[in-house]
Input
Amino acid sequence: MKKYLYSRFVTAIAAVVCGAVRGNAGMRIILLTMSCFFVIACVSCLRQQAPATGQGAEKDSLSLASFPGKSPKADALQEHLRLKADSAGVYCRSRGFSERYCILVNFNIHSGKKRFFVWDFEKDTVLYASLCAHGTGRESTPKKPVYSNDPGSYCSSLGRYKTGVSSYSRYGIHIHYKLHGLDPTNNNAFKRIIVLHSHSPMPDREIYPLYLPLGYSLGCPVISDPVMRKVDTLLKESKKPVLLWIYDEPVIYIHTE
Output
């Protein structure tokens, strides 16, 4: 389309030149006026075709978290998250956590895909989703994390966490949230300074089949800046602590014809 517009533009200019050389004064005025209108039309059309950028584009990318109906595999993931959220909801109601939102992180999902999910209990669906880095410790690889609760291990820890107060972070949007481990597998989280934060090099879109590189995390769940801004707002507005649950479970996809 752009090449077509450019060719028409060149043709119009050539017509103006020819008219200026061979035509009379009236013809030159008519051709110049037509050329001006055509240039305005070209600019308007090209602007309409330009890709979205900035805040509008960011909003569109975040809305992809509402993926039900996109494919059978996406529906399987949605159902998997719904079942996990049901269990999280029971825990939240019994422990005084937020009954509006929870955060689910499934490290069994390929690291090049979104695996950090903010679940909305009221809407019964994913609100936001992000890529999420796992720890680098022990013999962790980009493909598979090794889990540990030991201080100094630089590993991710499975289990449920209570989101605590926010503080300054050197990374990402410069905000992090303290995490308090609630299970034997992660009860050293606060001592290990395991926090929820973002990291600016983290892509906002899926990079599958590529894996996230090791080094983004020393055990913390690390997400993209755009989603962290949304999560920061959500956590600030929540009157109760929000549950964050890191787990490693396969998403069962049953293929049917």
